[in-house]
Write a structure and sequence with these properties.
Blueprint (H helix, E strand, L loop, with lengths): L9 H15 L2 H7 L6 H37 L1
Length: 77
């Protein structure tokens, strides 16, 4: 399996999603306020939270796309 996005243009959108989720989780704000108290262990923990949310959202987006395709195909056929 290739490392990174299959579609090169998706890298920017994925990066934006990552920062959006980190901001929603308050991670960006915490990092700016407590920059000196973070360590590699906390960074790994935050990366896990953000990555997990990204995965959930990407799966949700794919499921919605499949439902839309199936509903369009059933109308045509």
């Amino acid at each position: 399996m290739p490392k990174g996005p299959i579609e090169p243009n998706a890298a920017k959108a994925l990066n934006e999603m990552k920062y959006e989720i980190a901001h929603e989780l308050g991670i960006i704000d915490d990092m700016e306020k407590n920059r000196k108290t973070f360590n590699s262990g906390s960074n790994v923990l935050f990366a896990g939270h953000v990555g997990g949310q990204m995965t959930r959202r990407l799966i949700e987006m794919a499921e919605k796309e499949l439902v839309n395709k199936n509903s369009q195909n059933s109308v045509k056929g």
